[in-house]
Write a structure and sequence with these properties.
Length: 416
């Protein structure tokens, strides 16, 4: 490795063990930027919302990085923070199925399992953009279940997943068991049978699908007038919208590991905002705007971010060849530890050569967060926020509980 990997010490805290520790995947905007984004979004809100959000700004600020903590504690969380768009080919974001279930159907293998048999039902051969609308059952499956003679429509499978499987997701495997063995309205005979979906889609990231799901949950929270849920979901959504604005959250080369630029993820999204957000960037972004379609809004953000991937990588690559190598990385003391970070002069040159890219993404993100909060509130019928039911109000002990997550550990892919 040409350089030591960047370490974002604020995130790693006491787990920091040394300079050679690889940076975990998806540090996101780091503590600093996620918190700033949630806080600044408050100022875009309309009159009927702003008081409530201002009153609770501290919650939104403190909890802005909860989704990152959950990545290590909750299965299925890590994949919500990104999409490796280029894994699926050029212009994948143009063709990504609208429905998550359809994306899974088009890329995964389905198995039938009972005490005696494991049969492949069908395998869609990882082809997200296959034009076929119909799939054919495997020979072995058809020979055992003779009622399954013809093919089945992809949209019917997607609907079946939607009705039966989405709440049983266990990371990358979806197991449908017991009472749900009626597969596409036909009995699979054994009461001990299961359907296993070997999901080949989700591990490459589901951000375009998970972000709208959180939006709909926020709409429900507003309808319920549930303060804890409104705050929690607003904060989480702010985080995911932040991630969607980071170009390196949309590519397989998420940390420059494929182009010998290890550490560029934190360089772009943590180091640059930390150094320049308050001294160089302009945060006046105007008022939140209503979003009529959260799905296409999400995709538009991700497409824009993905279009910036080349410049994020190529500009730094060029600079690293021109700038004296010994002046690219400096040592700083943070929280009593010495860490290696891009030097300020090098970072400043990178920020300048990026031509306000980080600032523009930062600004666009602030407006997007405010607009999403406002639109969810609007879709819920603009409930009054000044006197939410006492029973639903946020209590301190819940904040402490959420921090326990930090001490649990789930294996998530950090490097590939
Ligand atoms: Zn994240």
């Amino acid at each position: 490795m040409k350089r030591l990997t960047l370490i974002f010490i604020l995130f790693l805290g006491k787990e920091l063990v040394g300079l050679s520790k690889p940076v975990p995947r998806y540090e996101d905007w780091g503590f600093y930027a996620h918190r700033m984004l949630n806080k600044l979004a408050i100022f875009t809100l309309p009159e009927k919302m702003i008081e409530f959000y201002k009153k609770n700004w501290n919650y939104l600020y403190e909890h802005a990085v909860d989704p990152d903590k959950r990545r290590y504690a909750i299965k299925g969380e890590a994949i919500r923070h990104y999409i490796d768009a280029d894994h699926w080919g050029n212009n994948a974001l143009e063709y990504l199925p609208v429905k998550y279930e359809e994306a899974i159907t088009k890329t995964s293998a389905f198995y039938y399992i009972n005490e005696l048999d494991t049969l492949l039902i069908f395998d869609t051969l990882n082809d997200l953009f296959e034009k076929n609308t119909e799939l054919t059952y495997s020979e072995s499956f058809r020979s055992k279940f003779t009622t399954y003679t013809s093919g089945i429509l992809i949209k019917d499978i997607a609907n079946w997943i939607h009705d039966n499987a989405l709440f049983e997701q266990d990371d990358q495997n979806w197991i449908i068991q017991g009472r749900k063995i009626l597969f596409f309205n036909k009995d699979l005979k054994s009461s001990n049978a299961s359907i296993l979906i070997d999901d080949r889609f989700s591990k490459h990231g589901i951000l375009p699908y998970s972000l709208p799901q959180f939006y709909y949950r926020l709409v429900e929270a507003f309808k319920e007038r549930n303060e804890v849920k409104i705050l929690k979901l607003s904060s989480d959504l702010g985080h995911y919208i932040g991630d969607a604005h980071v170009p390196l959250h949309t590519t397989m080369n998420y940390n420059g590991q494929l182009t010998n630029q290890d550490g560029i993820h934190a360089f772009w999204e943590s180091r640059l905002p930390e150094l320049f957000a308050e001294t160089k960037y302009n945060f006046v972004v105007g008022s939140a705007e209503y979003i009529p379609d959260i799905q296409s809004f999400t995709r538009k953000i991700i497409k824009k971010s993905h279009s910036l991937v080349d410049s994020v990588l190529l500009i730094e690559k060029r600079l690293s060849k021109q700038f004296p190598e010994s002046e690219q990385y400096c040592f700083e003391t943070r929280l009593g530890q010495i860490v290696k970070l891009p030097c300020k002069a090098y970072a400043e040159l990178y920020d300048t050569k990026l031509d306000n890219q980080v600032e523009e993404q930062f600004r666009s993100c602030i407006l997007a967060i405010g607009s999403v909060w406002m639109s969810a509130w609007n879709d819920a019928g603009q409930p009054m926020l000044n006197e939410l039911p006492k029973s639903s109000q946020y209590k301190e002990f819940e904040a402490k509980d959420s921090f326990k997550l930090k001490n649990t550990s789930i294996e998530i892919r950090s490097h590939e």
